[in-house]
Specification:
heterodimer, A: alpha+beta, 5 helices, 19% helix, B: 140 residues, alpha+beta, Thiol Ester Dehydrase, Chain A
């Protein structure tokens, strides 16, 4: 069982500067190099004016706090038995090259269901203008006892 | 000005299926995704480690599968900025050689030109690798 006292523990702020080539690399890796993600000449003729990140690039800039939680020596999650059970993203704006994003997050909940432990991580990402860009909610499931200690 | 949007709110009906997308996964895809995402969990790239963890082989990152399902939705609506909310549960693993079909269906037309979809991904044997997915998109 994961100690419930960690509910509310915060992570961040974590800064992420969005790189043009990294955005493209992610789109190619996801087999989706469409023009609005990789072609500046095309993108300049759209309302965005420049390429935008694939929405699921949130996996790169928006889940680092969750990554810190997974290896947090205080919380001691049993990684061998842990799976990423579910993911929710909510977007409030697009991400462009050069954006400086700041992620903050917390352990939103810890609970048990049968033999499974659930750890819920919630994060938010704002850009350099202070605008909310993303809310992310990750569900991690640990089978057979959640603590690695 | 190039218009990215392809679909109008009035053209969509509850029950409509969106065009599906299909992909066959291989080990190299997993290695490339690991590099692009920064997620180097060895169960996705090293068959020896995957076997130690009780799996028959390496398997796709869940977030890679989610990105392909997201792409299926964006192919339908046109403008990536119109995808507002997207959630999935990660279930069956996708192993090398597995072909996955990504699907969706309109379940609700909401206020403010928002449309809610159920979305999922299934393997050839019928197992769902992404289950109980939901997406909300804006349509003009």
């Amino acid at each position: 069982m994961v100690d419930h006292k960690w509910i509310g523990k915060t992570y961040g702020p974590l800064k992420y500067e969005v790189g043009r080539e990294k955005m493209k690399e992610y789109a190619y890796a996801c087999k989706d190099p469409r023009d609005i993600y990789v072609n500046e000449e095309f993108a300049a003729q759209t309302k965005y004016g420049d390429i935008i990140a694939m929405p699921n690039f949130a996996a790169v800039y928006g889940l680092r706090g969750a990554g810190h939680m997974l290896v947090d020596p205080e919380v001691k999650l049993n990684l061998i038995m842990l799976v990423h059970g579910a993911q929710e993203f909510e977007w409030y704006g697009v991400v462009k090259p050069g954006d400086v994003l700041t992620e903050t997050g917390k352990i939103a909940d810890i609970y048990e269901k049968g033999n499974l432990d659930f750890v819920i991580y919630e994060g938010e990402v704002h850009n350099q203008k202070g605008e909310l860009v993303l809310k992310a909610r990750s569900t991690f499931i640990i089978t057979g006892g959640g603590s690695g200690s | 000005m190039i218009e990215l949007r392809k679909l109008k709110y009035d053209e969509v009906n509850v029950g409509d299926e969106i065009p599906s997308y299909q992909n066959t996964w291989d080990k190299m895809t997993g290695i490339i995704y690991a590099g692009a995402s920064g997620d180097f969990n060895p169960i996705h790239v090293d068959p020896d480690i995957a076997k130690l963890s009780g799996q028959p082989n390496v398997f796709a990152h869940g977030l890679f599968n989610m990105a392909l399902l997201g792409r299926t939705i964006i192919d339908w609506i046109g403008d990536p900025g119109d995808l507002k909310k997207f959630s999935v549960q990660f279930r069956a693993r996708v192993f090398p050689g597995d072909t996955v079909t990504f699907k969706g269906r309109v379940v609700e037309k909401m206020e403010g030109n928002m449309v809610r979809l159920e979305v999922w991904a299934e393997k050839e044997n019928g197992e769902l690798c992404l289950k109980n997915g939901e997406a909300v998109v804006y349509l003009p």
